[in-house]
Amino acid sequence: MKTTLIILLIFLSLTPLAASAQEHKTGILYGPSHAFALQAPQGWVLDNKSGVSQNLYAVLYPVGTSWRESSAVMYSRGILKGDGIMSIKDQVDKTVKEFKESGSPKISVQFIKEITAEKGHKGAIYHYNGDQWGNHEAVVYFEEDKSINFIVLTTRTKEAFDSSLKAFEEAAASYMFITDDVQINKK
Q: Are 62 and 44 a contacting pair, CB within 8 Å?
């Protein structure tokens, strides 16, 4: 199984790198505790280069826009459980605390619903409002044995938020957990 996974990761990792950012539809995000696949929703681009300076290796934005200029963007990442983060609730509480500490005392969070993604993985969608910049965010969290993986939609306006929710839920539904036993060879 590990050999098959390594070959699959190599194939899927090399294929998108040869394409331009506008051609990305599917990608695999991986780290020491997680590997999961994600697909760009209809009319969106999955880009593995534009967010790298922000430590974001999978960013999404509508076709015809860019990561820097779009009024609605998404990104995804996984975090290792530990240091007080052992559940989705712990991660939500940490996010609210960080917003407040960084100048957004009026931040609010609301659980919206549970969704089912590929292979039956359950995700929890939350909405965040009231940050100091007037952004609107939706986050879907997927709790795995060793990690919490998430996709974030962030928008500059309520209108962009409302019009992007369908695409966000489409991206969330494409989440497919692969493994938490990732072996990264650094040569």
A: yes
Q: Which domains does the chain have, with CATH numbers?
A: 2-179 (3.40.1000.10)
Candidates 140, 134, 137; CA nearest to 162 is 137
Give the DSSP per-residue string, 86-134. Answer: -SHHHHHHHHHHHHHHTT-TT-EEEEEEEEE-GGG-EEEEEEEE--TT-
Sequence-separated (6 or more) residues with CB below 8 Å from residue 4? none
Answer yes or no: pTM beyond 0.90.
no
Tens digits of residue pLDDT in 101-149? 999 999 999 999 999 998 899 999 999 999 999 999 999 999 999 999 9
CA angle 11, 15, 16 (to 5 degrees): 130
Compute the distance between CA of residue 29 and CA of residue 35 in angstroms, rounded to an integer: 6
Query: Is 28 within 8 Å of 13 (Cβ atoms)?
Result: yes
Residue type for position 142: F
The length of the chain in residues reads 187
Rounded Cα gap, residues 185 and 140, in angstroms: 30
